[in-house]
Amino acid sequence: MTPVMFGYMRQLVHEEDKDENQAIKLELAAHARREGFTLERLFIERLRVDEESAFFALVDALKTTDVKHVIVPSLWHFARLPGLQAAMRDHIEREIGARLWVVQGAAVQQRSTAS
Questions:
Q1: What was the pLDDT predicted at 1?
Q2: Domain that holds residue 47
C-alpha cells in the first residue's frame, strides 16, 4: 500500500490566478507520486476571515491520523515572513513529528524530523 501525505498551500485569490492554483495542485500531486506517496488531502488556505484556518485543520488532521508527511509548494505558502515560516515548519516537524516536503521549482527538498 502506498503511504499517504497531506498537502498545504496558500491559494492565490485573484481570478486570473486560477490556472496557477491548479498548476500548483497538480505539481504537488506529481511530486508526491514521484517520491512514492499518494497525496490524500490538500489543505488550502484561502485567507478569508469567516473560514477555519487550513493550517489548524492540517495540524488537527496530523494529530488524529497516521499520516506523517506534508508537502507544500514553498515555505511562502505558510507565511511571507521567514520567522513565521520557520515557526510553522518547526511546529509540524518537531512538535507533531511529521516530515515536511518543500517543492521549489523542479527539485524537492526534504527535511526530516530529528531522530
A1: 87
A2: 4-111
Q: Which CATH number goes with the domain that contains 83?
A: 3.40.50.1390
What pLDDT score was predicted for residue 6? Answer: 96
Tally the domains of the chain: 1
SS (H, E, C) the chain: CCCEEEEEEECCCCHHHHHHHHHHHHHHHHHHHHCCCEEEEEEEECCCCCCCCHHHHHHHHHHHCCCCEEEECCHHHCCCCHHHHHHHHHHHHHHCCCEEEEEECCEEEEECCCC
The tens digit of pLDDT for each residue in 37-92 reads 999 999 988 765 555 688 889 999 999 999 999 999 999 888 888 999 999 999 99
